[in-house]
Amino acid sequence: MISQWGLISNGQNLAVTPVLGFATGAPASACESMQPQHSGVQPQPDQPPYIIETSNSTFQTGQPLTVIIKGPDYSGVLLEARSGSSTNALGSWGSPPANTKHLRCSGNNQGAITHSNTNMKNHLTVYSWMPPETSNSIYFMATVAKGRNVYWLNVKSATLTRDGVVGTGSAADPKMAAAPVLLLLTLLASTLLQC
Questions:
Q1: 105 contacts 27 by C-beta, under 8 angstroms
Q2: Based on CB atoms within 10 Å of each CB, which residue in 39, 103, 116, 133 is the most buried?
């Protein structure tokens, strides 16, 4: 967990001692890239062993969503909600669970969640997120660190849509799928009435 060295003095003696890098959370400078600034360490190239699960596939303004990172225990995290290709953190996070804290991102004091120490977190660590009024679709993006030297970038959830947003007119949209059935029933009823 050593990222640099520091000088410590007790008034009489001077000692060189290891300093832990970002053990108390990601710096605000990591908000956009979500890249840990662990000197000399690169992200894992393989598929992350983590997935982000949410309590719902849709969201509504004023209704919090529960977010969980599933996979092996982890010590570090940077978690944001985003939309499209924007790197802005959206919405706001509720009270951070144990061993985590808010991180000011995109001008929002509660725009992201990061670790507050290197204590392990796991699938029992539950995050609460409040949607913004402006976005119609969002996804959650995380950097998850198993330790200082082992981390994964771009751990991403499925895309969530605002509840009640009119779809593209595809049959997958339940409101649009019902329209042909109603038209058929109307035609059938008018035919029967003419007989």
A1: no
A2: 103
